[in-house]
Amino acid sequence: MFTARVSPGTRPALVAVACLTGLAGLGITGVADAHVGQGSLTWRTCAKTAKDWPVENDTRTECSTLTVPLDYANPQGRKVKIAVSRIRATDPGRRRGVLVISPGGPGVSNIDAPATYAAGKLGTLAVDHDLIGFDPRGVGYSDKIKCDWADPSPAASAGGKGTGRKPPPTASPKAKAKAEFAETAAYNRRCAAKDPAFVRQLTTTNIARDLDSIRAALGESKIGFYGVSYGTAVGVNYRSLFDDRVSAMWVDSVMPPVIDLTAMDATTDALQERRFEAFVPWLARHDTEYHFGTTDAMVRKTLFTLRDRLSRKPRAVGDGTVLDGDWVSGLLGVEPRDWISSARDLATVREGGVPLSARPAPQPAKVFGFDDNPLGLNLIQYQAIFCNEGVGGRDFERVWAATQARKATFPATGGYFERSRWCAGWPWPARPWKPVKGTSPLQLSGHIDESVTPYAWATDTWKAVGGTLLTVQDNEHASLRRLPCAAKVIDFFRTGRTATGTCPGMR
């Protein structure tokens, strides 16, 4: 799950296309006839048929499309296509079934997951399992719409869509927040209006139903499932709906049991504040280097004075970064491995300089989500997944009040993360998903100090749906597949043995 704080002006650029596009529309040749009828799959080598297939030198992964209902409450109505991938078990005589891999999102492609995982520590599972991946509805090679954050069309400009007017740097924090909220609302309304019926059906619950359609098309009575980050929400929803169709499920870096955007922000703020409380004495011990003070009290005063000064008089630097109070808050709750760079940047700005983090430097392009993929972030799918089923974020005054309450509770870092404004202007009320306990084998793993999907979410989901919880002793998001403890995952899918207690992580 991608959760970094993103200001409206830095939203990723996406091509503004109102039409739905599937595998053929993205350049996959010879696959348009891959489905004889609804519920069937015909496989072809992905690298030979899919435009810009993201896995270099991949000759093993096969691709197909599956036709599913747009709205499962109206199965005879409009249909959409879901892109599916497969790597067949290398030892058919030992084959145990299929293992679906859902590595994250929302908003990003997952179809290369079988090839990515087959090349890592979990690759041995490809000996006796068919590895299955898929692009959820709304992203990648599956049917989707595209919608830029900034609409370049003359009609949009003439019609005043989007705010188009930034508040001055001297505007009050509330005025700035209200302008950002309005800009998000304009984007949400404009993009949802491109195809309301489609956007309304972009839900985790429907993705879980699509997964069951994939199971049926594969001819399997049950599936194994390995989910990471947002993929854990897909898995938990699938198990809640189709418990008797799960052979075994492992979810790592777990999403909360329900989407409450305000509560999610509060959990992240609490974690960041705990990191700040450890950062302060470290700065005091390193006063000869960074000069924030020799005691905890002196460090706090210096940092909060700097934040207050930049809140009153923000500074804009060459790459578009605005050095304001929020910029300071963003550096106060960082992980210990980032303390040196954070302290250096804060000290540089205190003396009137430009922080290294704000200076342009050549570097590889970054994408969102768990795995790199060349198709980028589909922002409207991302918004829809949280807003169609997530509560919060519709009313500015409530969002503002909740943010101020978090700032009072967490004085150093409160209010920096603002998931709660993602659903500004969303045209439909939330229909929250309903996690329930099941009896199929379920293993959860949470990372004790990570901030992308905080450990508290794993414990909350564990309480809501059952299973067994393993605690990974690190602050890394979704690191389990790269750890020696990946052996526990392999053992779980082969023997059903669950794991409790702790597991050494990455530090």
From TrEMBL:
Report the residue ranges that make up the AB hydrolase-1 domain in this protein: 98-293
Q: Where is the Peptidase S33 tripeptidyl aminopeptidase-like C-terminal domain?
A: 416-498
One of the record's GO molecular function terms: hydrolase activity
Q: Which domain of life is it from?
A: Bacteria
One protein family per Pfam:
Abhydrolase_4
Q: Where is this region: Disordered?
A: 152-178
* Protein keywords: Hydrolase
Name the family the entry cites.
Belongs to the peptidase S33 family.
PANTHER family per record? 2-SUCCINYL-6-HYDROXY-2,4-CYCLOHEXADIENE-1-CARBOXYLATE SYNTHASE, AB HYDROLASE-1 DOMAIN-CONTAINING PROTEIN
The protein's name is Alpha/beta fold hydrolase
Q: Which organism is it from?
A: Streptosporangium algeriense
